[in-house]
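step=predict obj=DUF1211 domain-containing protein n=192
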Amino acid sequence: MGRNRLEAFSDGVIAIIITIMVIEMKVPHGENMAALLPVLPVFLSYIMSFIYVGIYWNNHHNMLQASGKITGSILWANLHLLFWLSLFPFVTSWMGENHFATAPTELYGVVLFMAAIAYFILQQRIIAAGAPTLRRAIGRDWKGKVSPIFYFIGIISAQWSPTGAKLIYLGLAFLWLIPDRRIENLLVDSKE
């Protein structure tokens, strides 16, 4: 399978994930702004999940641009990542519907943690298959290394403070929203 097919398949799955998340949001009963208050937690959890799925989509795209050949282990690692991303609609809905209660917030963190681990595995499989540009671009990858640690801290802290866990998850989302141009810059430099 070529890189374009893998990217198209992944893009399709990610588009379906976002579609399911938005379909899960129910229209409030009422015609004024006060009717939105009961669904505010659902909407806020959707925004956070949309940001995370968007981050994964963008980084996945950049990573595949720097890949060489696509091996069987890359296909399986990619499916592993897509599995964890596919759980976003469930944990997003559960967390929002239960107003960020402890157990849903913990499980949300578990999915974030496992998606980060799956992304790391995919990244390593691509590098192992021969992607020197990706290897150089990744470098020390401090964001990739610190994120699972903070997701784990968020999972543990949700037992005492679901709000604290949400703040950790949001902080990491904003950390990843800062554009990381390492891969793009190396790809441009290699074409010149």
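step=describe
The longest helix spans residues 102-128.
step=end
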